[in-house]
Amino acid sequence: xxxxxxxxxxxxxxxxxxxxxxxxxxxxxxxxxxxxxxxxxxxxxxxxxxxxxxxxxxxxxxxxxxxxxxxxxxxxxxxxxxxxxxxxxxxxxxxxxxxxxxxxxxxxxxxxxxxxxxxxxxxxxxxxxxxxxxxxxxxxxxxxxxxxxxxxxxxxxxxxxxxxxxxxxxxxxxxxxxxxxxxxxxxxxxxxxxxxxxxxxxxxxxxxxxxxxxxxxxxxxxxxxxxxxxxxxxxxxxxxxxxxxxxxxxxxx
Length: 253
Known about the structure:
Layout: H1 2-20, H2 45-56, H3 68-89, H4 95-108, H5 110-116, H6 122-130, H7 134-146, E1 153-160, E2 163-173, H8 181-185, H9 189-208, H10 213-233, H11 237-240
Antiparallel strand pairs: 1-2
Helix pairs in contact: 3-4, 9-10
GO biological process, one term: protein processing
GO cellular component, one term: plasma membrane
């Protein structure tokens, strides 16, 4: 067991030696700048393996984590944004490029967005307001899902985890704006503070949609009650990692 536990350390040290002896100028392999060799691996292996990266890439307030894949995603986003801005600034583009440029310019036109106000979503609010029973709610959910909303759950097609030759229609939990059930159910001070600020944010959104102060307050509290009830039915992150707990194949009819 001791030999097995030491295997990852041995592999890393072999990689370090190999990279350190590379005089060819190749950049493949382990980046030694990401290590903190002032720390003994046996004393703090995480600091030894990642200390250089943490020193060279301090965590900004906008991130909860920042690793090499996050850096890759950020760089990719910046490059895509540059490509889209270039397309949007050019005249006479056609086809798909014209569609991309048009969509970008519409999204970035804050003057028009402010002038439009809630008009673009008014029809959705009217549909929601017209619901009076469970049947009406089910019909509305079906309509919204066809239009790429997923109010209580979302549906997608993916491979059968027990038969890779087949694709299945799959259903997954959804409906939580905060994203994780613990934000709604955990009773620690941090999550209570998040919930309080979230309800305030919802209230402001209702106010911007034309609700008076009292109506906005009631509506925001109602939203929180619904999402909290949904959170109670959601699997937690640990359960979501259990493939057997998440596999419930059944016939369509």
